[in-house]
């Protein structure tokens, strides 16, 4: 991986005055750079566009922005196929543009978190090109996972392992060997038993820390270390891909997911992150059960891990209470704070997802263009607003996905000819993929891309986006944007401590908890209007009905 010059000691940002524990109850806003703002008019979002719109995040009231990958990339997987971990994609800008963006963010009081993709590189990465030239048995190939195939002539994949995106996780090269790719074929997996791989990522961590980055989001954190002892083990269930196969193995022993050995990597990283003042933060994307997930969040490892169980829970009071209680207990046991998220760049936006009938096959729903079943967008937005206020009242860190503050729904009816997600092709057009949550943001009520850029956007925006635009909601009482702004402003004043106390004296379908800092959250997930408990109404996700709490509504009360 290319070594880039780093800022001199004199120019390295001084972050020493920052609270080292700022992340424990922060609100972090995910920016998907290619869909946030386009400054140069080429249809693709870029870093200068992010810089120009940072005032929006500061006014929103978030603590930090998390940048999805902005590195040089073929975009075989939306930027998660990285050509060079220490540079910026020329279509998105330069390292100078990154430095300017980080400086402006810090001036506005915003922290900067960057995405790190350590499980795999792009097939265009210098290391992988070298591996193809060097041939079988070479040191260059040992940085990746190359193996001979099975069958009389090596014509069969080495194992039955499946790609998360569909099909075999092995791709054959012209000399007959196969390489491992747990995701797209353009994303060859690295061999984390190779010390060169480990050393280079240490360099990458230091490179971005020296540029003033406040933390890292670690992509596919649970998959780095594999059991590569010969013979490689079959899963014995080729129909199971990804985390679905975890349950077939004792914890920590799956051939390539959530192996106990992976924690050695993160203990090593923590030493680097703690060498800075203040220590840099990190959060793991680890799609594993809660008891295993919190291992990544231990203080001597990454410190936090995304809580996907919360995201995957339906709109049900009993289920949500169980997940919230368990998540808080798990985080407490690990010495971490809990994390909460409702949407991101990989899932159907929650303003749509939360009103899909329980058990809906979202892949089939997307293939129908969002028509089978039809979605009530007004009901979805009402439920999304209630879910947001519930989430923001919980102890821990909340991760917001760009556009949710506008109430954006999923764009399910994108024409198939514009789809960019590799899932579409790799599954033989069985799964439409994730493009529907990645459609560029609307900033204005008109223009060729609703203020995203000077021309058309790389994914088409529906005409309905005009009514969701920042311009259409800014300063409008009751708008979703103003709800987020008010909630985040209040949250800063109200949030203290990391405990809550549940109330059992509630009607069926209602969640109610008190915070030790003198306020209360009540969410009505039922179909009935219910009485409110005592307290001063601070904020409500929807108007009260004669002083009572309507369905799909959350209220914050001062005690």
What does this protein look like?
The chain has 559 residues and is of the alpha/beta class. 26% of the residues lie in helices and 12% in strands. The chain has 16 helices and 16 strands. It has helices at residues 47-52, 54-60, 95-107, 126-134, 195-210, 262-273, 290-296, 308-312, 317-334, 350-353, 362-367, 377-392, 422-426, 465-468, 470-473, 480-494; strands at 27-31, 64-67, 111-116, 146-147, 170-172, 178-180, 215-218, 281-284, 303-305, 339-341, 397-401, 500-502, 510-515, 519-524, 536-540, 553-558. The strands form three sheets. It has an eight-stranded parallel sheet with strand order 9-8-7-3-2-1-11-10. It has a five-stranded antiparallel sheet with strand order 12-13-14-16-15. Strand 12 (500-502) and strand 13 form a beta hairpin. Helix 5 packs parallel to helix 6 and helix 12 runs parallel beside helix 16. The longest helix has 18 residues, at 317-334. The chain is globular and about 75 Å long. Mean pLDDT is 94; it is low at 1-12.
In helices, the fraction of residues equals 25-40%
Strand content: 5-15%
Specify the structural class.
Answer: alpha/beta
Provide the gyration radius in Å.
23 Å
Mean pLDDT: 94
Question: Helix tally?
Answer: 16
Unreliable stretches: 1-12
The oligomeric status of these chains comes to: single chain
The major pleated sheet works out as: 8 strands, parallel
Distance separating the two termini: 56 Å
* Structure summary, number of beta strands: 16
In spatial order, strands of the major sheet run 9-8-7-3-2-1-11-10
| 3D shape | globular
